[in-house]
Design a protein that fits this description.
By secondary structure, the chain is an alpha+beta fold. The chain has helices at residues 3-41, 53-66, 93-101, 109-120, and strands at residues 72-79, 82-88, 123-132, 137-146. It contains 4 helices and 4 strands, in the order ααββααββ. The chain starts with a helix and ends with a strand.
Length: 150
């Protein structure tokens, strides 16, 4: 499957969700999608016994790279509760950026998956700023609350 097709498909699905359900329900769709995807991947990636959220997030980042969703991905603690998620050339970057420019809820496919990882470990993340950089990198800032991930 081509990346171009996936990008157009994701744009179309999330634009339709925004139009038909409104922003609040589309955000519900975004977060629930990540939870369902995590349910499907947890055993496949051997994450059931991984208690350390940073290790689990790193495994998800590696998987996203291995399936071609991103060229590179990394989650790192900036300080205390602040984290940064850096993706290089995510497959859906164009559609996500376009949806954001239009004032619509973007898909946040990998972000919602990572937030589900945290939720499974009793943590909650809040999405901060998302920056689309010209060289194809996307940088998100998160605030993780609950017990502190190490």
């Amino acid at each position: 499957m081509s990346e171009e097709f996936l990008d157009h498909l994701v744009y179309s699905v999330y634009r339709a969700a925004n139009e038909l359900m409104g922003a609040e329900r589309t955000w519900d769709l975004v977060w629930r999608t990540g939870e369902i995807l995590y349910e499907r991947l947890e055993a496949i990636l051997g994450l059931e016994s991984v208690e350390d959220p940073v290790e689990a997030l790193s495994r998800i980042a590696e998987w996203l790279k291995s399936v071609g969703y991103v060229e590179e991905a990394e989650v790192r603690r900036i300080s205390g509760e602040e984290f940064e998620y850096v993706m290089s050339k995510p497959a859906i970057a164009r559609s996500a950026e376009e949806l954001v420019r239009e004032g619509r809820v973007p898909p946040h496919i990998s972000t919602s998956l990572m937030f589900a990882v945290l939720k499974k470990r009793g943590l909650r993340a809040e999405l901060g700023e998302t920056v689309f950089l010209p060289e194809g990198r996307v940088v998100e800032r998160w605030r993780v609350v609950g017990s502190r991930p190490d």
